[in-house]
Write a structure and sequence with these properties.
The protein is built from 21 helices and 14 strands. By secondary structure, it is α/β, with parallel strands linked by helices.
Length: about 525
């Protein structure tokens, strides 16, 4: 693993990573005579716009700061917006130090990637950049340790060298094996050099590295793995791999992906064409002369894209791109992602057809990721969440998916029992919707239809964070979306007929038709309030 990481610079670190390190040095904050700087990973996410920033200032003036600024030493890992807003509001700023063992890049992704203004393309771009940053930090960490090992050897050998001094070409840099051994020694896998205890080497390395490279001692990140980075961002590893390939071969297409003009799979197809044809294809798609890059290629050349005519690999290799859902390969559905299941692994898709009575088969919603395996359809809404719901909606007109037991908490004026299939009936009035996780996509589609028809003016929609990308995008495109509340910890749910269960994924509350300022006061105790850009 060490050798592979050391050689990964061949992949290249795009300008976003370099810019993040540069921006972090300039992005400083003063408070009570002390200076704080942003962590590079935090600078990848933009600051709030003027309207949303003013709303945050108003909330802080009213309620004070409830969510601390998260620090790693003197670096702001999370909370740059809160810091600025608190200073403007004139309220006391509170801080908390992150656990030094925390995976910093993963933490930053966890806190930010689920902001609802992120398109699937922007998510995969950020996942790629954060992964590259994680690799960069890991390289810095290892190099800092190696340098200290070299210094320790030189110190023990003395100015004139000695019998134990490393010969030229035989230092920790001499080769991958030696470098890897130096890193293992420094990390505690054995003693240091010339009998120096590994702990002493690490302590000296920490002091030297902190002065030379403040991020060199960040805890090693799991995001160096493409699979893990994709999993935490909620995109498929296939999409992330394709994106990295596009950036390497046709970097001009990155903007098209981020802006949602092309899907990752479509951009991967376009990237295999010559530069001039790529430029023409981008223009055709932007001007609406073609729906996809593949279509534009066919219109301009009279042939199929090169990616579609490549011979299949022997032994069941991948065939032409299907043009289906993001991340799909050879007509297969995208890899499902489950946010933190029992074993922390994504469930595997069987590729089998959906049952005839399922939402996907009936046309009532997009294909779902693997359903949350433990959250029962009989789970009851958390009391803390309902307290916030009642602040926004003192009277709940309608609950389309409920039960008599659930209504002892929700107390809606009207509700459909789960057996009544609320997706087949008309809704009416301000609604609170908490569907069974496996049918969340179907109810999301129904809610958007009812709001478009004007029958539901305001709504609160509770769903797992592993909602399918297509269903999530449907909710985020709504002009009535006020914001979302992203739960920071998985909730223990009470159920109607059994013991409480821990939800396998965190929950997300989508809020439609309310004022922004109301969200912070209502839901700050339950989760992180996020307002889409431009709202």
């Amino acid at each position: 693993m060490a050798d592979k990481l050391d050689q990964m610079s061949a992949e290249g670190f795009d300008q976003a990573v370099e810019k993040a390190f540069t921006d972090a040095e300039k992005d400083t904050y003063e408070y009570e005579g002390k200076t704080y700087a942003a962590h590079p990973a935090a600078t990848l996410f933009p600051l709030l716009g003027e309207d949303d920033f003013d709303a945050l200032v108003s909330s802080l003036r009213l309620n004070g700061m409830r969510t601390p600024i998260v620090l790693l030493g003197d670096q702001i890992v999370d909370g740059r917006n809160r810091f600025r807003a608190a200073k403007k509001a004139g309220v006391k700023i509170i801080f908390e130090q992150i656990d030094p063992k925390e995976d910093i890049c993963k933490f930053v992704m966890d806190m930010n990637i689920h902001r609802r203004n992120l398109t699937p393309g922007r998510k995969v771009a950020l996942a790629s950049t954060l992964r590259r940053m994680a690799i960069r930090i890991e390289q810095m960490r290892r190099e800092a340790m190696r340098e200290q090992v070299r210094n320790s050897r030189e110190k023990e050998a003395g100015p004139g060298g000695g019998p134990d001094a490393p010969a030229e070409g035989n230092s920790a840099e001499a080769g991958p094996a030696a470098a890897g051994q130096g890193a293992e020694d420094a990390a505690g896998g054995g003693s240091g050099t010339d009998g120096a205890p590994a702990a002493d080497v690490v302590a000296e390395a920490a002091k030297a590295a902190e002065e030379k490279a403040p991020h060199a001692l960040d805890n090693p990140s799991s995001l160096v793995s493409r699979k893990k980075a994709a999993e935490f961002a909620g995109v498929s590893p296939t999409s992330l791999k394709r994106f990295d390939k596009v950036v390497e071969t046709a970097p001009e297409l990155q903007e098209e992906i981020v802006e949602g003009k092309m899907s990752v799979s479509d951009a991967a197809v376009v990237s295999e064409e010559n530069p001039e044809l790529r430029r023409q294809v981008v223009e055709d798609v932007r001007q609406g002369r073609a729906r996809t890059g593949a279509q534009a290629i066919e219109q301009r050349t009279g042939r199929a894209p090169k990616a579609h005519t490549r011979p299949k690999a022997s032994g069941g290799g991948r065939g032409p791109q299907s043009g289906g859902a993001e991340g799909g390969v050879a007509g297969m559905p995208p890899l499902p992602t489950v946010d933190g299941g029992a074993d922390g692994k994504a469930a595997a898709s069987s590729g089998a057809a959906a049952p005839a009575d399922s939402p996907a088969a009936s046309g009532g919603g997009a294909p779902q990721r693997a359903p949350s395996p433990a959250l029962s359809s009989l789970a009851l809404s958390p009391a803390l969440l309902l307290a916030g719901v009642r602040k926004l909606m003192p009277v709940i007109d309608f609950d389309p998916c409920s039960s008599a037991a659930a209504q002892q908490r929700v107390r809606a004026q009207r509700y459909f029992d789960r057996e009544q299939d609320g997706c087949q009936k008309a809704w009416d009035g301000a609604s609170y919707v908490f569907p069974p996780p496996k049918f969340a996509g179907r109810f999301a589609s129904k809610l958007m239809g009812e709001m478009f028809a004007g029958r539901v003016p305001r709504a609160l929609f509770l769903a797992p964070s592993d909602l399918a990308d297509e269903d999530e995008a449907l909710l985020l495109r709504s002009s009535k979306l006020t914001g979302i509340v992203y739960q920071l910890e998985r909730t223990e749910f009470e159920v109607e007929d059994g013991k409480p269960v821990k939800a396998p994924s965190r929950m997300v509350l989508y809020v439609f038709g309310f004022e922004r300022k109301e969200l912070y006061d209502a839901f700050d105790p339950w989760g992180k309030v996020l307002i889409p850009a431009g709202r």
